[in-house]
Structures
1.
Amino acid sequence: MQPVTSDLQVVVVGGGSVGLLYAARLALAGLSVTVVTRSSLQANQLMEQGLSLQRLDGTKTKVMVPARPIEAGLPAGNLYLLAVKQPDLPPLLPALTDLNPAARVVALQNGMGHQEMLAEVLADAQCFFAIHTEGARRHSATEVEHTGTGTLRVGPWQERNSRDPVIASFVEWASAAGITAIYEKAIEPHAWRKLLANALINPLTALFEIPNGALLDSSHTQALMRDLFDEAAQVAAFAGQKIGEKDWQEIVVICRSTSRNLSSMLQDVMKNRSTEVQSINGYLVELGKKSGIPTPLHETLLRVILLKSGMGIGKEGRRQ
Ligand SMILES: NC(=O)C1=CN([C@@H]2O[C@H](COP(=O)(O)OP(=O)(O)OC[C@H]3O[C@@H](n4cnc5c(N)ncnc54)[C@H](OP(=O)(O)O)[C@@H]3O)[C@@H](O)[C@H]2O)C=CC1
Ligand SMILES: CC(C)(CO)C(=O)C(=O)O
């Protein structure tokens, strides 16, 4: 059944794995969705060929979504889903300052740091964050595969007095699209837990070039993950977050439920693109330094991934 509120006009900024997954699922549920891409080529291909979604059961479906390149500016809308990588956010910030004050922006980035960036250009009332554990993989400019189920949590960074109607409507539509979506009072604690999951899963899968589920196949990777978790939990405690055994179990569940997924960091390494390791493990290392908590494992992984993503040794660009 469609939600009662039908006046949402969604603009998905970024036609990568996550952007295309959400664009396809929301458009298939009947919502008005426009995709803003980096290149004119991708926008033209989407306009001509439509967007193809491969579901978890392997079936494929196609949906037509309007698309335009960022150089044409951001189209009118009342909900902007930012689905670009953390390092690609800064060039987008000037365009966000021109948005209608009634428009709401939801940032889907992993890691930490984007909250401060957005607070500089948007009013507090406009700014929302999403933490999601859905797995996605883009196969081409017009094809995306849904590789794992998860939960979409949306809300303000910290608790506010009232619920926002645009965000409430988005959560209803996401649920209608088959996504387990929750309107959270505050995202900060969830962002911390996701940070920990990404700080374990992403660099290890990128280093060993394995899917998320394979981390659980060996007692060595499990032990490494646990040591990384304990180190990160101490930094989180300094930031006021109580991290416990339940959170460790939750990370194991994410590995299982996205077992076939290639983490976003592994996908970046394979394509010789820069990764988000600075805003994930790098964030923990920096906070560790400020608080006097040693983070040797996260620091080592940070260096290893920075080296690996800068060396052109990803599978698709491996040196001969
Ligand atoms: N992939 C996954 O399973 C998950 C990813 N995430 C997080 O979601 C976020 C997005 O990840 P993901 O979709 O994997 O990343 P991708 O790299 O697949 O997609 C990012 C997209 O943003 C586009 N882009 C970059 N700059 C601009 C711009 N200025 N204007 C318009 N488009 C732009 C890129 O274009 P181009 O293709 O031309 O480079 C690319 O298509 C990340 O923070 C990631 O950590 C979270 C959970 C799961
Ligand atoms: C949940 C997970 C680990 C899914 O792969 C992810 O957030 C990512 O790949 O960045």
2.
Amino acid sequence: MTTQTPSPSAPTPGLPARQAALRMLDAVMRRGESLDVAQHAACQGIDERSDRALAMAIAGEVLRHLPGLDLMIDSMTRLPLADDAKARMVLRIMLAQTLVLETPPHATIATALPLLQGGPRKLAHGVFGSLMRAGVTLPAPELPPATAHRWRAAWGDAMVEAAAAALGTPPPLDLALADAAATDPLAAELGGISLMPGHVRLPRGGAVELIPGFEEGGWWVQDISASLPARLLGPSRGAHVLDLCAAPGGKTMQLAASGWNVTALDNSEKRLRRLRQNLKRTGLEAQTVTANLLEWRPDALADAVLLDAPCSATGIFRRHPDVLYRIAPRHIEERAEQQAVLLECASNWVKPGGLLVYAVCSLEPEEGEAVVDQFLAADSRFEIDPVRADELPEGVTPDAQGRVRTLPGMLVDAGGLDGFFMARLRCKG
Ligand SMILES: C[S@@+](CC[C@H](N)C(=O)[O-])C[C@H]1O[C@@H](n2cnc3c(N)ncnc32)[C@H](O)[C@@H]1O
């Protein structure tokens, strides 16, 4: 048997995944890109799916645990490393690898230290080695101070504690079913639970394509919170609904499955392609329109309009912890301005007596409650159509005005849910 020694120019095995993780983190923290977008460029040239998944896992875990990792690093340096120092980021990667992903320390050193080629490798090696010898363990996850401060002011201490706990808990995988009657059999088959008809929750994510029934298309992945806005329109017998800002189509599929005649509009052709693929897989139907909502006119007023407006997406921080580091107050302000304009536009396409549902997957009241309050104060054509408790899963209740706000801390024993805001408005007859 011969042993092959790697040629001196061969890359260290495992290094490309760490390089990609470093590039992704740089894109999120410096350029404000989302991890999903950053992943594409950062993983160029990495062929193995498992390496791309590892890069994503490392970057995600760094973001999930960042304040705690920084505390450890700072405990071992005489002077704190600059926030954006490469050595700090590499140390974060090393600690996340070993403490979260359970890579043995020697393998972490071999695969991550080369990221500091020509830089302070000795320092990083020393800090990491000292922390390992001290037997450090991972502290409980924490929100970044700016987010914690903002959410504490909006929702109180208990919400901030619940959000930090949610950050450290792998979120479950929710399936939305085309046929609500199939709920119990599917839950039994997949070993899941159901919180509402048409909903099945599996304990955690994984390769969705490998879940039995994926090819048959009887369900799609959708957090229970994200399924609530379309549920507020109820079933229909072919009435016309405009699903505005529709892609990739979770709500389009719900509406089509509930009997609505759906026109699904989005300004992103790329995202609409995914919507069409989703419709094809599930065998559901909708007309699709690629257009900027602000420049489009429908042929006729609709019986109902659903506006799932673009937002900061801070409500999905459990699955996308990068939002915690990308979203600043100025982004929230910009989004809120855009949402007000989109809501005003969408309201013009509702028939008298028809319904308008406004929704955002944001935990910022400026993008939810405030947008609807402002709209109603300026537009006397609409009034709130209060949501009833029996339209929601047990443990989620409408607010005093009949709007719905889902927060970390709700349904915790069942695995929690994403943060959403939604309101159902009626166009006065
Ligand atoms: C929150 S996502 C929609 C998610 C979708 N409703 C679902 O359930 O799968 C917001 C969408 O708004 C679209 N969008 C943003 N600005 C738009 C505009 N001016 N006109 C049309 N679509 C827009 C984005 O491309 C994005 O797909």
